[in-house]
Design brief:
disordered C terminus, RRM domain-containing protein, three-stranded antiparallel sheet, 22% strand, RNA-binding, Alpha-Beta Plaits, La_xRRM, mRNA binding, La_dom_prot, single chain, alpha+beta
Length: 233
């Protein structure tokens, strides 16, 4: 317990802490010499079962819209006005460790949690809370939002994939149609020659199915009708 930051702000004297626990704690007990503590044997930790998790979720809430400079003690006092709480967790930015303005709260009774959620308008100091929902509903909504975002990305990429697939299909179709001795390789072309000029040049000799040529290059490959290849020589 001496490692708890909030406790260290009050005192780091173990004797003072033990004396306070003797008269106030229902969960821990202090040794006879007053320098050790432990959880009371008659109040063991509850088992981690699905039933237990569901029971906690039924009295756990999420709320958003608190000032970014809000303090934990003030938040605890605020929620205690709705009923006793077991835990108030301030959500923080992962890297900066600054408060995000939202919290998870576990009430001791599900009725108090429901009362907080059902309130038509809830204000903290001068701020009206933007969101109030049960913790389980919060995670369901987050999961649905992630799924929707993923679907939008997938839909956005479909036109590009379709265009890419069309180009690949056309190239594959051309390769499948090629027959042996129907492809010419030429070298020494004028760099200013265009693809259309090459196709026009070969057209009188037969059907030109495909020209692999980039303007500025001096090399070209051309696929022609194999039945007319003799007329080229």
């Amino acid at each position: 317990m001496l490692k708890f930051n909030r406790l260290k702000q009050i005192t780091d004297d173990s004797k003072v802490i033990c004396e306070a626990l003797k008269s106030s704690s229902e969960l821990v007990e202090v040794s006879e010499n007053g320098d050790k503590i432990r959880r009371r044997p008659d109040k063991p930790l509850p088992g981690d079962t699905q039933e237990r998790r569901d029971e906690i979720n039924n009295r756990s809430i999420y709320a958003k819209g608190f000032p970014l400079d809000a303090k934990l003690d003030d938040l605890m006092s605020f929620f205690e006005t709705y009923g006793p709480t077991e835990n108030v967790f301030m959500k923080k930015e992962f890297h900066k460790k600054t408060f995000k303005g939202s919290v998870f709260v576990v009430f001791k009774n599900k009725e108090d949690a429901a009362k907080f959620i059902s309130e038509e308008e809830t204000k903290y100091q001068d701020s009206v809370l933007e969101v109030k929902k049960f913790k389980a509903d919060y995670f369901k909504d987050k999961q649905a939002a992630r799924k929707s975002k993923g679907n939008k990305k997938e839909d956005k990429s479909k036109p590009q994939e379709a265009e890419k697939n069309t180009e690949e299909e056309e190239s594959e179709k051309a390769r499948q149609q090629m027959t042996r001795n129907a492809v010419l390789f030429l070298k020494g072309m004028d760099p200013e020659t265009s693809r259309e000029e090459i196709k026009t040049f070969f057209a009188p000799h037969g059907d030109v199915g495909w020209v692999d040529f980039d303007k500025g290059s001096t090399e070209v490959s051309s696929w022609n009708d194999p039945f007319s290849r003799k007329s080229l020589f």
